[in-house]
Design a protein that fits this description.
Blueprint (H helix, E strand, L loop, with lengths): L2 H17 L5 H8 L4 H8 L1 H19 L3 H16 L8 H32 L4 H25 L7 H17 L17 H5 L10 H29 L10 H4 L1 H5 L1 H20 L1 H21 L6 H29 L2 H34 L9 H22 L16
């Protein structure tokens, strides 16, 4: 089988697994289990906990001990089995530990899939920069396909979403053993310490003010990212009333939310133009303002006359997500020394998907339960989304004054449209 096709299949299933439950677990917990926001936000925080250290740990393993494709397969098989256990859990505390175990298996597979793809393409004498982005796009398509599968089959609040994800994970796990071999490259003669392997030297970047500010805002935006992942479909499910029950947004909320992923693929194409025209600092600022719009449009939208606001919010998500993540990684690429560049990228992802995601999930769940849920258990979504919009607006207002970075149009950034 063609190597690119094999990697496309891997990426499609990699993100299909995540898409089958990530945006709908909140609806499952609130509508199927009647758990509070604080309870299922704690469950959602497991992604952040696992992202703090698991990618670094598995990185050491594939550098020194085991083939990357073998570890990748083992992790997916174990994660798939754990997902199939989820429907039998009836306690939020128990589900927290089960989902934490699942995320400990899943999160490192994201970076491992990139390692496998890069190695396979290089060994086939293919241009990684040219060939990988179109392959990775199939991951987003897989995520969208999972959302549509769960939504059309009416399993957004059903435990079946975890069976769907679990079965695909096990299939991908066994498929991984047939992927090109990626053996460890470390030799005993390599003068690389455990501190180097863990990427701890990247923390010295905090001594520089521009990097300290950048990483702090990466953490703050990481918290914002998890807000719509955790509550987006739950918000739409709450419109399941006589007034809105026949609207498409209530019947198929996950399909509506999948517009966000479609938007991602389109906004990636616009990044080179914006970076060249405005520079990294203002592209990051546009991302923050897009988060304000994302939340603000949700606050005033509804599945009837306000459906256009919900759809526009999903379209804006592409700018909100891509503009900061990609421009942020380019900032790291162009501003750090080659010796710590890889670990600095890992630190960036840890701040966004680890620490930011963890605290964003926990704090938002606590605040919603305390201030935006009535004694009759009615959710004040208008207030919830406006408070999130205000949070993003404060970040956007402060950022340009504290982040010192001057755009130089003469410097060519290594980014091309997909």
């Amino acid at each position: 089988m063609n190597i690119k096709l094999r990697l496309i299949i891997m990426n499609f299933m990699q993100y299909f697994i995540w898409g089958a439950w990530l945006l709908t677990i909140g609806a499952y917990c609130s509508h199927n289990k009647n758990w509070s926001f604080e309870q299922f936000s704690a469950i959602f925080s497991t992604m952040g906990i696992s992202a703090v250290f698991m990618p670094a740990l598995t990185g050491i393993m594939v550098d020194r001990i085991i083939n990357a494709e073998k570890l990748y397969g083992i992790l997916h098989i174990c994660g798939g089995i754990v997902l199939c256990v989820v429907p039998f859990i009836n306690s939020p505390a128990a589900l927290f530990w089960v989902m934490l175990l699942n995320m400990l298996f899943y999160m490192p597979t994201i970076s491992l899939s990139i390692t496998i793809a890069y190695t396979a393409l290089k060994n086939s004498d293919l241009d990684v920069v040219k060939e990988f982005p179109p392959i990775r796009t199939w991951g987003t398509i897989g995520f969208i396909a999972a959302l549509w599968t769960v939504s059309i089959s009416h399993n957004e609040t059903s435990a079946n979403q975890f069976y769907i994800a679990g079965i695909v994970a096990v299939i991908l796990g066994f498929y991984a053993f047939k992927l090109p071999k990626c053996p460890p490259l470390w030799k005993k003669s390599d003068n690389r310490t455990l501190v180097d392997a863990l990427g701890l030297k990247a923390f010295t970047l905090f001594k520089t003010s521009k990097f300290a500010v950048f990483f702090i805002f990466a953490m703050l935006l990481g918290a914002a990212l998890q807000l719509t992942n955790a509550y987006g479909t739950t918000f739409l499910h709450d419109f399941d009333t006589p007034l809105y029950k026949d609207s498409i947004a209530v019947k198929y909320p996950a399909i509506i939310m999948s517009i966000s992923q479609v938007s991602e693929t389109l906004f990636i194409l616009a990044i080179p133009f914006f970076l060249k025209k405005f520079g990294i600092k203002y592209v990051m600022l546009f991302s923050m303002l897009a988060w304000v719009l994302r939340f603000g449009l949700f606050a005033f939208g509804n599945p009837a006359g306000g459906l256009w606001m919900i759809i526009l919010s999903c379209i804006v998500y592409g700018m909100a997500f891509d503009f900061f993540n990609i421009s942020g990684s380019l900032f790291i690429e162009t501003e750090t020394e080659p010796q710590i560049r890889g670990s600095a990228q890992g630190l960036f992802m840890m701040m966004v998907n680890g620490i930011g995601a963890f605290f964003g999930s926990l704090i938002s769940g606590f605040l919603i339960d305390r201030f935006f849920v009535s004694t009759e258990h009615v959710n004040n979504w208008h207030g919830i989304w406006l408070s999130f919009a205000a949070y993003a607006l404060v970040i956007a207002v402060v950022f340009p004054f504290v982040f010192r970075y001057k755009h130089n149009p003469a410097v060519k950034l290594a980014v091309e449209p997909l």
